[in-house]
Every structure is written in structure tokens, then in C-alpha cells.
Write a structure and sequence with these properties.
The chain is of the alpha/beta class. Helix content is 26%, strand content 26%. Helix 5 crosses helix 6. The longest helix has 13 residues.
Length: 235
């Protein structure tokens, strides 16, 4: 099983932001998944010249709603929000949310750190698409790592021009990444096939996967709405 440790394992690209970090604080946690694999999550805080801290792996503050299903908050009968990292239980929680609130039509993505289980995350994306739910990133929104796949799943996609999309390569617990497998290996093909299912051509899917893998897992490449719109339609 491959997992993109996305909450984690983000390092801030200081050159992209045009500032120099003065300090870095790193915290880690370790857990064992259902298959017995041990994973380590690392969160990095960069202290910048202006005194502001940026915790790249953080989730959004608590969002008011009428119900909570794992990383999902029901805002009203037709809107839900993704407010935390997804994990292996997220597809079941998403299904439970839709059973309780079948009228949900829009998934809002304000500050989405990523996923702790890529396989489950790709299943979740297919569920979003199958229910024809739209995805929406508001002004100032941030969608990172595995959460980008969920944004792509929207039957309709809406994103503010200044929305941030952070991408990076996945890495497994042995330190292997996409380049350690043949291009057509199942672990790599799973992503290309997913992007095809989300409406990309074969060439677009391969190019987008290459873009996500253009920086290692311990770094992040920042994109904006116009960059994503090269591959899928965004309103």
C-alpha cells in the first residue's frame, strides 16, 4: 500500500514566497495502520522574517456546521466542507454523510492538508464524482497534496484565482517514490487512471502526474488556479 504522507512531510518553499526563514520547528508522530505498517508524520513550522509562522500541514480552524463526519462538516442541507486530512475511514464517513444528508451538492475546500491514505483518498474522489458533487475553493483557499485529487473529482469545479494548490510526490514507508517504479507499474498507473476518470486526456493525465512528482515528498510545489486549469475545466 502506498500512502502520501501529506499532512506531513511538507517543507515550505521559501524561494517561492520570497522570504528567508529564521527558524524551523519540527514535530513528529508515529502510528500503525490496519495492515501493520508503521508511518511517521512530520510537521514543519517555518518562522519568517516578518515574524509570522506558517504551519503548512495544518488543517482549518473548527468550522461551524450541523453535523460532523470525520474530516467532513455538514454546513447545510446542500453544502459540506472538507476541514481535515482524509484517512482510511474517510470513504465510509463520506458515505454515511450522504445517507444522512442526501441533498449535498457542493464540497467546500477552505484549508485542506491532504491525506494519510492515498488508496482510500482515490476511492473517495471517485465517490465524489459518482455523486456529481461540485468542489469549490474560496478566495484564499489552500488545497494540498492528496486533497488536490479530491478537488479534481468535482463534477463542476470552482476556485478563486488566488487559491493555492500544493503538490508533491508520494513516498512509502520504505522511502520509495514514483521514480522507483516503472512508469506503467500499477502504483503509478493508479494515479494516471484516476486523472483520466476525472476528465483528463491520457496526455494531460500523464503530464499532471509528472507535475505532482516534480518535487520530492519532503517539499511542496505551489500552483494557482490558472495552473490547474491547464488540465481540467474550472469555473
Amino acid at each position: 500500500m502506498m500512502m502520501r504522507r501529506a499532512l506531513a512531510l511538507f517543507a515550505l518553499l521559501i524561494a517561492t514566497l520570497g522570504v528567508t526563514a529564521q527558524a524551523r520547528e519540527v514535530s513528529t508522530r508515529t502510528w500503525t495502520d490496519a495492515a501493520g505498517a508503521v508511518w511517521t508524520e512530520t510537521s514543519t513550522v517555518e518562522t519568517e522574517n516578518d515574524g509570522a509562522d506558517r504551519l503548512v500541514g495544518s488543517a482549518a480552524p473548527a468550522m461551524p456546521g450541523i453535523a460532523r463526519f470525520g474530516p467532513f462538516v455538514v454546513l447545510d442541507r446542500s453544502h459540506a466542507a472538507l476541514v481535515d486530512a482524509t484517512d482510511g475511514a474517510s470513504p465510509a464517513r463520506f458515505a454515511a454523510m450522504l445517507r444522512a444528508y442526501p441533498g449535498i451538492q457542493v464540497l467546500e475546500m477552505v484549508d485542506c492538508p491532504g491525506t494519510l491514505d492515498d488508496n482510500a483518498n482515490l476511492r473517495l474522489g471517485r465517490m465524489i464524482r459518482a455523486r456529481a458533487i461540485a468542489t469549490e475553493v474560496p478566495p484564499g483557499g489552500s488545497v494540498r497534496s492528496g486533497a488536490v485529487e479530491l478537488f479534481l473529482a468535482g463534477a463542476d469545479r470552482h476556485a478563486a484565482p488566488d487559491a493555492d494548490f500544493g503538490v508533491h510526490a508520494w513516498e512509502d514507508d520504505a522511502g520509495r517514490g514514483p521514480g522507483d517504479y516503472p512508469a506503467n507499474a500499477p502504483v503509478n498507473r493508479a494515479y494516471v487512471d484516476y486523472y483520466r476518470a476525472m476528465g483528463m486526456s491520457e496526455a494531460q493525465a500523464a503530464a499532471f502526474y509528472a507535475l505532482t512528482n516534480s518535487v520530492p515528498n519532503a517539499r511542496v510545489r505551489w500552483l494557482h488556479t490558472a495552473d490547474i486549469a491547464r488540465f481540467v475545466a474550472i469555473d
